[in-house]
Amino acid sequence: MRAHASKLQPGSTFLGSQVARIIESKNPKYSPGQYVVGEFGWRTHTVSTGERLPNGFPGAWIIPDFPKDLPLSLALGILGMPGNTAYFGLLEICQPKPGETLIVTGAAGAVGSVVGQIGKIKGCHVIGVAGSEEKGKWLVDELGFDHFINYKTDDITKKIKEYAPNGIDCYFDNVGGEITSMILCHMNHFGRIAVCGGISGYNEKDIPKVTMIQYPVVINELKMEGFIVHRWLDRWFEGIEQNMKWIQEGKLKYRETVTEGFENMFKAFTDMLRGGNTGKAIVKL
Amino acid sequence: MRAHASKLQPGSTFLGSQVARIIESKNPKYSPGQYVVGEFGWRTHTVSTGERLPNGFPGAWIIPDFPKDLPLSLALGILGMPGNTAYFGLLEICQPKPGETLIVTGAAGAVGSVVGQIGKIKGCHVIGVAGSEEKGKWLVDELGFDHFINYKTDDITKKIKEYAPNGIDCYFDNVGGEITSMILCHMNHFGRIAVCGGISGYNEKDIPKVTMIQYPVVINELKMEGFIVHRWLDRWFEGIEQNMKWIQEGKLKYRETVTEGFENMFKAFTDMLRGGNTGKAIVKL
Q1: Which residues contact B25 (CB under 8 A, 6 or more apart)?
Q2: How many whole angstroms separate alpha carbon A128 and alpha carbon A146?
Q3: Is A285 part of the contact surface with chain B (CB cutoff 8 Å)?
């Protein structure tokens, strides 16, 4: 993310989560052969103490036992940080109730696709916003979203009125930007907004200017809260276990966009920022 | 406010609170000679049932007994809706703690001037933003604000860094607009923003575009909540009584900008929108 990545100095390792097998260990908490997940960055081999990083992120988690049919790479997606981002962000900040309407932007991404499905599990009417008809088809036909809005081709305001005739109660915001200003104008009294990211501006040189949001925020007494999932580190495995249970019950589905080879990492990353991925973007070494 | 006023149809009575003396009453709850405050609009005489208005606002409150040295017009300001807006909005949404830094925009207005003083009562370091040196002098010299920023002439970012070297914890936002985007970039982790209004855009034909706020909201996990003071109708007299007590203890000061004569109402209103008032803008009939 630009938000974190823009602070990097030239020459430092680029950010990224990784599943890694332990080759050698001098720490009794970790054994060779075990798999861990950590914020190791773009590299093939890592020396780690396993201790927390200076930014408070965990150094390395030992991946819990996954059912045999689930790939370890899910520890980077639906059974890791993105899945937990969806789980805690939606449930703790949006607090969706049965019968309410939920809208999620970046809906076909690693986080958004899980947000919408958990919304359905909780009895919400769910609208996903993404940038291609193919993604939309996946959201509605396979993941069970009620509606899809293509932000690149649809008249967004018209579609919101059509798909959310009773207004929107919960908004899980992955993108920020003008679309957020539009969505806020269709929210109900005491609506809740979980602000997870602002990807719409990550590739811009300057932070974009968008229609100011204070009118709908005041008139409808909206509550908007930004969050970073590490706030719930002490409940980390609660999210993973619940998402795993829902996968096994057939209630949560996932997709990964896998790129092969370290040399294709940069392309995979920039494709992701341009919206080329569906579900979690993975690079396999 | 544009927010409410823009919904008015031509020919309807313009919005405004009023202190009125009861001339005649067929309702046993109200007696001739009593003073009430209500959303009667711009008119000299009103027929009211005293019942709640369709928008949920109270029809008419009987003004509680004020100490003899306090004018009844305070029921329109510090001992009425604006005072309660400051009291509940700051305490319930910003939840200021001793030692924290509070910034308030529209600081010399009927709401902002009370917000800053309650912030001082609660032990905060308080910065007020307003549009003239005269207002700034009043805030700092008479009301006890720690610092003043003149948004028309100061380098706002530089002043924030100087006056809030440890960052801002609470922001009471009366104006919205670009200054809000700037302030959010200087807020601390888990900062709270009470969104009370967006006056910076009320005179614009289109809602202004401002720098998007998702980056600071996410990175610092900020919580932003819009509110209308009528949310706390059931605690209405708690706010009035506490503010009255603080006035009597010398901890809360007020100023009114009084215009004489119904025929000068429009000018008083537009002067207020342009920032001509200090404290509550009152028209005396």
Answers
A1: B31, B32
A2: 8
A3: no
pLDDT digits (tens, 9 = 90+) for A51-88: 777 666 667 888 888 888 899 999 999 999 999 999 99
Query: Is B217 in CB contact (< 8 Å) with chain A?
Result: yes
ipTM: 0.89
**DSSP type of residue B13:** P
Interchain CB contact of A224 with B (< 8 Å): yes
B95 at interface of A, judged by CB pairs closer than 8 A: no
Contacts of A222 in chain B (CB under 8 A): 225-226
In chain A, CATH 3.40.50.720 covers 81-229
Q: What is the CATH number of domain B81-229?
A: 3.40.50.720
- Cβ neighbours for B64, distance < 8 A, ≥ 6 positions apart: B237, B240, B241
Phi, psi angles (nearest 5°) of residue B69: -85, 0
Q: Does B214 touch chain A (CB under 8 A)?
A: yes
Predicted confidence (pLDDT) per residue in B8-49, tens digit? 778 888 888 889 999 999 988 899 999 998 888 888 898 888
Q: Do A201 and B212 touch (CB under 8 A)?
A: yes
- The burial of A144, by beta-carbon neighbours within 10 Å (0-12 exposed, 13-18 middle, 19 or more buried), is given as middle
Which positions 166-195 of B are in contact with A (Cβ < 8 Å)? 173, 176-177, 180, 195
User: What are the residue ranges in chain A where pLDDT is below 50?
Assistant: 1-3
